[in-house]
């Protein structure tokens, strides 16, 4: 008697999705799928628009990460119009982007992924949310989370023109220079962000790594996959969210390839499945071998964990210290090719990696805010239309984000291609869900705690399904177990 388990909607993510789990006659998991049942179509309806509108159109793709699309589109326009970004404008862009990373990673740790650890994976469902987190870590910590998001959003608003869908980007520049008053405010906010990041890491060490059961969960095999890792690095192989070259390392830690964002089509191809609207990118030189890991599979991850795996170091001192502590904890420090770190393949470690990035973003903010030329007024330049191609790339919180535009001699777009962070991770998300389901569901027995642990397999990737909404664990949920042959309902579990 075959069965199917449907988790719809899945919770605590940006957007909408569902999980389909198929069981055999003995109630063991045969397969599981992560599905995105919504179609937005941004690429299609951008064709025919004026190219310079793209930063303000694509930042509507998502209400959680509009800064990523705004900056990636701006970088694509820099190339499209042949106007390299002015140094002062580039500093403004990266300052905004660093503040955005602080807020986004804060949201995920305290509101989306963190409740599974801070409150507990098997805690009552009504407690696995931000309110449950505040009850665990204290009201002052909750106030600190709100204050962190508020001050960084206010800074983004002042630098970018709007607080949610910023509007400051121009081809080759930025619309308004930084005033001395805003620069002073940025310096103060950066210092506060560093303190908050250190507090968040201390919380993770105390509550998660200090708990033997949680530590075993993070370091265990249930959520582990050996795939390639991808991320943007600077000239010293340190992660850089705003600019650099894209580096890919294999599961053993050897550098597989390194390329400029403009060369992405030489390295990345996309596979399509009929049951989801999201494509499955893979490494072109290896090919699509299905939803399997290992060096013979073209599947790769592009996540905070992947960015640490491809890096030789961090570019700021406090983040570097935590980077070393991270690889030490998994026995991977200095054990890879040429004495570099071996990749960490335990996917729940992504939560720790995300906090290390939070600290790096805060420290990078401080560097940019302290730059002597931050208030340089030379942030705009003349632009003229021309036919051509522009490709811009940044590291979004969820992975490498690429905007690829083509326009005619009038500056009208003729083609648009977007490869977003979640798209990069679509295959490993499905693989992680399937592995977790197979390890947790036996003899057809399911419970709310088991289903939450299956959902933890996708939450660690922080997927953004091209939608401006997200839930924190209280949305209505019904899991239905049916016969696969005639659809007869065998059992229901309700949430909310």
UniProtKB/TrEMBL annotation:
Fe cation binds at residues 65, 467. The keyword Hydrolase does not apply. Pfam families: NiFeSe_Hases (PF00374). Keywords: Iron, Magnesium, Metal-binding, Nickel, Oxidoreductase. Its cofactor is Ni(2+); Fe cation. Mg(2+) binds at residues 43, 62, 418, 470. Ni(2+) binds at residues 65, 464. This is Ni/Fe hydrogenase subunit alpha. GO terms for molecular function: nickel cation binding; oxidoreductase activity. The keyword Cell inner membrane does not apply. Belongs to the [NiFe]/[NiFeSe] hydrogenase large subunit family. InterPro entries: Ni-dep_hyd_lsu (IPR001501), NiFe-Hase_large (IPR029014).
């Amino acid at each position: 008697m075959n069965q199917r388990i449907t988790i719809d909607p899945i919770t605590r993510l940006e957007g909408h999705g569902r999980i389909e789990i198929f069981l055999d006659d003995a109630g063991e998991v045969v397969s599981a799928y992560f599905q995105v049942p919504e179609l937005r179509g941004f690429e299609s309806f951008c064709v025919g628009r004026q190219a310079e509108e793209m930063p303000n159109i694509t930042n509507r793709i998502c209400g959680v990460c509009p800064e990523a699309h705004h900056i990636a589109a701006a970088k694509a326009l820099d190339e499209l119009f042949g106007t390299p970004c002015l140094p002062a404008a580039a500093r403004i862009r990266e300052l905004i982007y660093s503040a955005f990373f602080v807020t986004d990673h804060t949201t995920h740790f305290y509101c989306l992924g963190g409740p599974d650890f801070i409150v507990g994976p098997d805690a009552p469902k009504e407690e696995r949310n931000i309110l449950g987190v505040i009850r665990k870590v204290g009201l002052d910590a909750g106030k600190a989370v709100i204050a962190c998001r508020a001050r960084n959003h206010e800074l983004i608003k002042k630098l970018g023109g709007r607080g949610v869908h910023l509007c400051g980007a121009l081809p080759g520049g930025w619309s308004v220079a930084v005033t001395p008053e805003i620069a002073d405010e940025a310096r103060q906010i950066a210092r506060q962000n560093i303190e908050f990041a250190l507090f968040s890491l201390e919380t993770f060490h105390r509550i998660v790594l200090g708990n033997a059961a949680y530590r075993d969960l993070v370091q265990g095999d249930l959520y582990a996959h050996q795939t390639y890792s991808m991320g943007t690095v600077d000239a010293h192989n340190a992660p850089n969210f705003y600019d650099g070259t894209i580096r890919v390392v294999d599961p053993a830690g050897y550098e597989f390839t390194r390329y400029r964002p403009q060369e992405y089509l030489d390295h990345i191809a996309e596979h399509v499945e009929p049951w989801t609207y999201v494509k499955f990118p893979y490494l072109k030189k290896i090919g699509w071998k299905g939803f399997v890991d290992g060096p013979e599979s073209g599947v790769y991850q592009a996540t905070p964990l992947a960015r640490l795996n491809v890096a030789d170091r961090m570019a700021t001192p406090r983040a570097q210290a935590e980077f070393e502590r991270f690889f030490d904890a998994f026995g991977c420090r200095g054990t890879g090719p040429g004495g570099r770190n071996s990749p960490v393949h335990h996917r729940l470690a992504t939560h720790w990696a995300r906090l290390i990035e939070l600290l790096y973003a805060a420290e990078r903010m401080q560097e940019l805010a302290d730059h002597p030329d931050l208030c340089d007024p030379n942030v705009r330049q003349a632009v003229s239309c021309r036919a051509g191609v522009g490709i811009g790339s940044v590291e979004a919180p969820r992975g490498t984000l690429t905007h690829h535009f083509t326009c005619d001699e009038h500056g009208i777009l003729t083609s648009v291609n977007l490869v977003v962070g979640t798209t990069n991770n679509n295959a490993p998300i499905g693989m992680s869900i399937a592995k977790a389901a197979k390890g947790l569901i036996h003899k057809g027995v399911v419970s709310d705690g088991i289903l939450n642990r299956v959902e933890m397999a996708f939450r660690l990737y922080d997927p953004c399904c091209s939608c401006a909404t997200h839930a924190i664990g209280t949305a209505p949920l019904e899991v239905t177990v049916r016969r696969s042959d005639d659809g007869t309902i065998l059992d229901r579990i309700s949430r909310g």
